[in-house]
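Recap from last week: sequence in, structure out.
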Amino acid sequence: MTPLDPALTEPLRDPRTVLAALDFAGVAVFAATGALAAAREKHDVITFAFFAAITGVGGGTLRDLLLGLPVFWVQDWRYMAICLLAAVAIWLIGQRDWRFRALLWLDAIGLGAYGVMGTAKAEAAGAHPLICIVMGTLTACFGGVVRDTLAGQPSILLRREINVTAAILAATLYIILRIPEAPIWPAAIVAAVAGFMLRAGALRWGWTLPGFPERK
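Predicted structure tokens:
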């Protein structure tokens, strides 16, 4: 096998490339969940676009504001374009029996990917590891909270099922793997997959965390 040209592989080791890839993937997935939420309520195409945008960039916007960074989608028009394309795609798919089940699984993918993305961006900004984990969790969950609130659905924060926990796992595992200065790509992939698998297990087998015990 012919080895790859170092000039081509070098960008794959650049943290900025990794962050951008995770960011675009997270925005696309969460924008699709926002559009699916609008479809569930049978809204018009403008509301589809609004739900897609607010869900796709909501968590990242809060993260950047708290970190004192330029808001990412204001600096790059492609993020908003991705949200609009996701809304149009869901609109064109039309009524499908599997559509709302897809919302849950796309949300699971987004929790893992965006949990890592938010953590990695906070790490790149020089935040403390604990703050990085908090930023990763907020990035992954806040857009979904806004989406559910607008759609009149119970917030993910109020559900017994494992949801936010998956984002916390992805963010925490990424920080742990990066302590020995592991390459960013392997750490990001392992952490994102772990977050997704935890959420997938909750969807498949109904895993939940123990609730507050009643007094006997």
